[in-house]
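INFO  loader      accepted 1 record
INFO  loader      residues=318
INFO  predictor   begin
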Amino acid sequence: MDLDFARQVLQTEADAIRSLLPRIDQSFVDAVRCILACRGHIIVTGMGKAGLVGQKISATLASTGTPSIFLHPAEAFHGDLGRVTPDDVLLALSNSGETEEVSRLLPLLKKFGTRIIAITATSASTLARGADIVLQLGKIEEACPIGLAPSASTTALLALGDALALCAQKERGFTKEQYAFYHPGGELGRRLQHVSEVMRSGEKAPVISAERTIAEAIALITRARAGAISIVDGAGKLTGIFTDGDLRRRIGEDAGVLKKAVGDYMTRNPKTIGPDRLASEALFLLREKKIDEVPVVGADGKPVGMLDVQDLLDMGLV
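INFO  predictor   done
INFO  writer      dumping tokens
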């Protein structure tokens, strides 16, 4: 196998992306503004390899706050044109700019009043002449050994599409919380869940006052099938935590410990986390401090729940 050629492929595709840097100009700004002003969907279209890249760009737009769907240009002439409205923006992809199925769409969409952004090699192509905004890729040599299979050009196309989608995301101020809403499944979604969504609360997160006995605390822990209990003062604010591990360590020293006040044996000023923090932050805290439970405390200093490492295990975060 020619490993030097494999490296050459990667270099050629990297060079194709670098060649786009001087092309990030006013046309790019206009394209992002057009996307941000769109009241409908960004309709992405392209044929062949450009169409496959377009599907990914459409997915990136949709997952980062810009409603988008992919329209197959051939299917558009068999009823799918009904997906497009005057409030939409068409993002048309074609390296040559002469793809027949894409070019035929332009006059029809012009009748709708749909704005058209084209990504193509040059402004002289049919696609570019029919578009409102043109992003030029320039002449790109393919990495293919015979110079024909779309490779470097599709890499550049994908990178420029990502730049559009992510700049729109940044301009919108799209937050982690919004991103989590669109990614409820998989590891990304799990890591972006809030502590309040995964913590134990109510009877599953027992609370007891400091003067109550350890026996009473253990009874509540057992009933909740938990590993710890939050200790509060007379105002209901967290003052400490008592765990199964604390009991095991103490009972070996003093057989009568169960009759003692839990406040005398609790861990004072424990590490805590707020309900609005991310589950991934809670995981970092548990790992960093080498603890299995962390009380979840509201802004008023009162416990609202308990997060156990088992909860994160069940989520698949650990």
